[in-house]
Amino acid sequence: MTPLGRQRPALVTSLPGPASSAWIDRLAARECPAITARRARRAAVLGAADDDPIVWEQAVGANVVDVDGNVLVDMTAGFGVASVGHRNPAVVAAGAAQLAHLPHAMGDAFPDPVRIRLLERLAALSGMDRAILGSSGSDAVEAALKTARIATGRDGVLTFSGSYHGLSYGALSVTRYKAGAFRAPFAGQLSDHTIAADFGGALPDLSEIGAVIVEPIQGRGGVRVPPAGWLAGLIDAAHAAGAVVIFDEIYTGFGRTGHWLALQSPALRGRRPDLVCIGKGMAGGYPISACLGTAAVMDAWGASKGEALHTQTFLGNPVGCAMALACIDELEVLLPQVAKKGAALRASLEATGLTVRGVGMLLGVVIDESLAVSRGLMKRGYIALPAGESAEVIALTPPLMIDPDQLDGFCAALAEVRTELSV
Ligand SMILES: Cc1ncc(COP(=O)(O)O)c(C=O)c1O
Fold first, then answer.
1. What residue ranges define each of the domains in the chain, with the CATH number in brackets?
2. Mean of per-residue pLDDT scores for the chain
3. Ligand 1 binding pocket mutation candidate from 76, 141, 165 (most atoms within 8 A of CB)
4. Which residues pair with 56 in a beta bridge?
5. Angle at which helices 113-126 and 318-350 pack, to 10 degrees?
6. Short-list 212, 361, 330, 359, CA closest to 276
7. pLDDT tens-digit profile of 209-252?
8. pTM strictly above 0.85
9. What angle do CA 236, 242, 244 make, to 5 degrees?
10. pLDDT at 181
11. Distance 353 CA to ligand 1 centre (A)
12. Which of 81, 250, 282 has the most ligand 1 atoms within 8 A of CB, as the residue to mutate?
């Protein structure tokens, strides 16, 4: 029998099942209502379609098992985190060993060898000299914005339409994805030093700009790939104006596009950003992130004078660092397969008349009624979410280890859903 992790869906209840619904009731009583989308209570009253979330019990490889015992296939890798597969045994073993040995060191005060090994490995794979570690993607973005400010002495930041850089205040100030929804309630408290240009379009005057922040491929913004040559031109223009270029590779990094980082794509013809943010897939499920940078830019911070100007309680947490090191080992094996596997998935989808955008295993299927399509897929045991300003794509970022048979099953399920919905 195919091992869990590489199985096609096996559903034992309709979704969400009764155990999921019971947990969602308990969640509803105790979690801020703005966090988890829930509709079942209303549906139970009205008898309408129930599209509450399922509640995850465990996840292995490309499979998720919910609290009702349904086995699903995760085409999101849990927001792009489980690139090496959920509960990757080598990553879990590294985390467990570290947990038993030294679960916490002391941020900027007392480091530990695992953090130092990770910093060395990150430098080797990225070509960037230095790093600031963090816990979330937003942390990495904040560290990059601060570094650019320190390095250039300029307040101005250029960001792009459709961008998603996280929701903490600094990151939100440069996020433009669904501007009204995410920014409007806090607009009065956000930095007014930020200007936005069209992603892939003409650039404004950069003379007052200290940082240009860009996703090489926009993820949540709808898997948008900029026109050929645009990123290279952006780097040239920013550098000519004395601005620092930040690549936000929180989605594209750690193997998703078939390179360690998208900045290694030949399309950049050797150009490099000054700072790179990574997170998500970095440790296979442990919250850790990094802002990587060149010595020229990072060293502008100067030496710590005893109390670090930028730090966190959990900076460089040893468990996260150990898991990230194991994750890098795993990715070394998976990386060479990404382009081929992504191309095969893309070809299967395009063969059915669909338009697919993206690179490697970061793909967006352009489709009408993406929300209904996502629900239809879910009912067949495939987890895939809409993305884009107008939810114009279904984003596909499965674990890189996903079995080709699971991808075939997904394509067949999508074909069924399209027939059912006539899209
Ligand atoms: C490109 C990009 N940057 C930043 C973030 C924010 O990361 P986090 O949610 O870990 O703060 C995300 C999250 O989706 C992202 O896709």
1. 18-87+336-421 (3.90.1150.10), 89-329 (3.40.640.10)
2. 95
3. 165
4. 66
5. 30
6. 212
7. 999 999 999 999 999 999 999 999 999 999 999 999 999 999 99
8. yes
9. 75
10. 87
11. 31
12. 250
